[in-house]
Model the fold of this input.
Amino acid sequence: MLNKIIRTYQNTRLATIKKFTNQHYDILDEAGFLDDGYISKKIEGLKIEYAKLDNQIDVLLLSANKDDYTKQKIATLLDQKDDIHLYIAFLSSNSMNSIEFAIQLLVQNQKTDFCLCLEALYHFKQNREKDALDLFEKYFMLHQDPLDHFLINKIYGVLLLRYNQIEKAIKFLRIATEKRPDDREVHQLLLQTYEDLGMRDQGKIHQKILDLLGDD
Done:
């Protein structure tokens, strides 16, 4: 059923998960959408990779060789651990239940612009919608491109709708459906928004997907 929904709404494509530091570095994944099963599997794999990096660092620290090459190698491995911290925070924050964990993970290890989005999700969870919107706006003033992140696109889109920024809201909600095409709430929001705008053809796409999804 999910494959049928995806074919109805989007072509399968490679998605780039971007790092949100000042560096230009991409992590390429063969997944166009982010469901819970994919995220859990990916995080488990990252934990294994993290443990391997720790072991390599331990070996280098215990070795008798303390030359510049060894020091640089350790620094490189520590950078790779930071990448994993960021990636786990990125993936886990696709669930509202994991927002606090994702924030704590980055605060303890590295502070990036992406933290603005995590803090926005946290404020939304605490029913502080204006604070959440302000933080999202601050992030997207710094970074023009949307994120390949289901929950950020969904919640930002919801907030934009509530503050009557309709065209912008549609953009982010559509990206949210690409990341998680079985989320009924986003399709319902887009259906209602398109109908309110008199854009019935676009609304029919989301009605068709809702029909395919069936009742919860």
